[in-house]
Structure formats: structure tokens, C-alpha cells
Write a structure and sequence with these properties.
The protein contains nine helices and no strands. The chain is mostly helical and 215 residues long. The chain has two domains: 3-87, no CATH class; 123-211.
Length: 215
């Protein structure tokens, strides 16, 4: 039994699984030496552990066909079936959702329900954190716009108090000044609204993390 085959008999930790799930890509293929020395049971096992579909063997087949090697589909399937069981845990589902990662619909019926419940919980947390980041960016933008508007208003004030301003020009400046004050009032209102939204979302985030089984 070679080193690659022995791997599936070892204990695979949750941390290892999560790290691998988040770093793997569906485009990974095998090189010439890996095709020649392939232990198709272990390759299937690792693909299952990483949450890849069993159809991933198609990528391996294409890679190895270049070197005249045909995968053992039966061994791959057997390994994949064992590996996917280790992937389909609630903890992995939660971490996958929390990172906003896609679930490949690989879990068998007996494990699917608990996995998906945890996945959706993690995904809800991911979505809420995304909303918080977006709201923070909106608040920062509104703050910059407010500062620019305050600067413009002060410039208009400085012009209005000049003695050498013609009457018609002063009227226009006053009109512009009042329009800017209205804009500032509306901007302040939106800023306060966004801050309130942010506060509520942060409370929801605290509650969700406190109630989670996995935090």
C-alpha cells in the first residue's frame, strides 16, 4: 500500500477539511507522474473529502489521457463515496456557508439535511457581514459627501458677506446657499438612517454568533 493510499485510513481533522475545501479549485488536474502512479481509490477519496462532485474524475481522465492512462472508475467511485461522508458534516457545511462558498450538491440523503441546515446558517452570517461591509462603505461615502457639502456652504457664506457683490449675484448666491442647506439636511438624514441600519445589523450579527453552535 503506497503513501497516497494509506492517507484515507488516517484521521482527517475538521480543520484540515475546512482548509482544503476553501483552497481547492475544480480545475485541478494530475500531471504525468501522478497519472502513472495514481491510486484511484485515494484520489476519489480526496475529491470526496474536498466536496468535489464525483464527475471530477472527468478532469482527471482528460489530464491522464494525454499520457495514455485511463482512470479506474470503480476504485475512484468507491474512494469518493467514503471521502464525501467526511465532507458532509454540519461543521463543514457551516464553514462553507460562512465563507460564501458554493455547495456542489454532493451530500447523500442521510447527511444532506443537517449539512444544509448548517450551510444555510453559515450563509446567513456571510450575507449579514456582507451587508454590514456595504453599509459601512455607504456611510463612509456619505461622510465624504457631507464634508464636501459643508465646505461648499462655507465658501458660499464667505461670498455672501463680501461687500463688493452685486445685488443679482448676491441673490443667486443666496439661492445656491439655501439649496445646499437642503442637500445637507437630506444627506444628514440618510447618514443617520444608515447608521441606524448598521446598528441593527451589528446587533443581529452578535445574536447570530452567540446562538450559533459553531462559533
Amino acid at each position: 500500500m503506497n503513501k497516497r493510499h494509506r492517507r484515507h485510513h488516517g484521521v482527517v481533522t475538521i480543520g484540515f477539511l475546512v482548509l482544503f475545501v476553501l483552497s481547492i479549485t475544480g480545475c485541478a488536474t494530475l500531471n504525468r507522474d501522478e497519472c502513472r502512479q495514481a491510486d484511484w481509490f485515494s484520489i476519489g477519496y480526496e475529491d470526496g473529502v474536498n466536496g468535489l462532485r464525483a464527475s471530477q474524475i472527468g478532469q482527471h481522465r482528460k489530464a491522464c489521457a494525454k499520457h495514455g492512462i485511463i482512470p479506474d472508475f470503480n476504485l475512484y467511485e468507491q474512494g469518493w463515496q467514503k471521502g464525501v461522508v467526511l465532507f458532509c458534516t454540519p461543521r463543514n457545511g457551516y464553514e462553507l456557508g460562512k465563507k460564501g462558498r458554493q455547495y456542489n450538491e454532493v451530500c447523500p440523503g442521510s447527511l444532506r439535511s443537517l449539512f444544509l441546515d448548517a450551510y444555510h446558517d453559515g450563509r446567513a452570517l456571510y450575507n449579514l457581514k456582507s451587508d454590514i461591509r456595504n453599509t459601512n462603505r455607504k456611510i463612509e461615502t456619505l461622510d465624504r459627501e457631507r464634508k464636501d457639502l459643508v465646505h461648499l456652504i462655507r465658501e458660499k457664506e464667505d461670498e455672501l458677506v463680501r461687500d463688493d457683490i452685486e445685488k443679482e449675484k448676491r441673490k443667486q448666491l443666496l439661492k445656491d446657499f439655501r439649496a445646499l442647506e437642503i442637500d445637507l439636511y437630506d444627506l444628514d438624514g440618510e447618514y443617520r438612517l444608515r447608521e441606524k441600519e448598521l446598528h441593527e445589523m451589528e446587533k443581529d450579527l452578535y445574536r447570530m454568533e452567540a446562538e450559533s453552535r459553531f462559533e
